[in-house]
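Notebook entry, structure prediction.
Reason for the run: the old model in the group folder had no record of what sequence produced it. Starting over properly, with the input documented here first.
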Amino acid sequence: RLVEAKRQCDAEHERMEIQFRRLELEADNSKERHASELNSVYEKKLRAEQNAEHDKETVRKEERRRMQLEMEKAKKDHDMELEEMKQKHDRALRIAQEVADLEVENFRKAHAGEAELTKLVEQVKGSVSEVGRMSKRV
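New structure, fully documented this time:
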């Protein structure tokens, strides 16, 4: 009976050893699966971060490009406005020059007329003097 109990105990011990190895193998397999899943999650996270960074960079590039276009448009508008102002200024200068030239011409004409009048007055005075001398002779 002791031998039978020892054999049962040994059989129970053997069964427990087998069960222990099976559970240990299952635990190792679970650890490997978990490590693989964890690695997969880590890689997905890394790809997501890379994609997010790439998206941010794309947005930054697009924003820089948009700002560059806005700056170019503003510069073009400014250059056009400056050209318009220059043209208006040149036209105003031409008009002012024409007015000044017209005034100078009118002034010259007025002086020329005045000079003619002065000459005529001198001629009339000369004629009056001559008539006066002639009347004294008569």
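Summary: Residues 74 and 96 are 32 Å apart (CA to CA).
The old model has been moved to the deprecated folder.
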